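From the pipeline queue, job 12 of 40. The input is one protein chain; the requested action is below.

Action: predict structure.
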Amino acid sequence: MRTRGLCSTLVRALPGWQRDSHDTLHDRPPHILERVAARADDPALRDIARRTAVLSTAARTERRISAATPPDPTEDFVPDRTIKDADNLEQLPGKVVRSEGDAATGDGIADQAYDWLGVTFDFFEAAYRRNSIDGAACR
């Protein structure tokens, strides 16, 4: 069995494999990227695997060295939800349809977005003692 051909086939068969505008292999563990970079038949695929390994290593290192500062345990978290509607256009940010503390709008999608943001906010507060995914209110 030829391992080089198998390696290229394996990567292409993995869920989520695609070449995109940035030519990277998305969501591949480092050991797979190393194997593809060393053994793939396709030189372009080897190059993509090498570049992806470098980028993902840099991203993992950045996450390790720049951890968000945990908030003061006594800090009271207050949600600040703003739901906007772009009216099916690509012009963002769109008009505000509901803000924190406003009554339901009657627009099912806007109200659902508001409610689920509340659930998400509660999760980050309870599980991580953060006010957002980055602990800095995503600002």
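Job complete. The helical segments are 3-13, 30-39, 43-65, 108-128.
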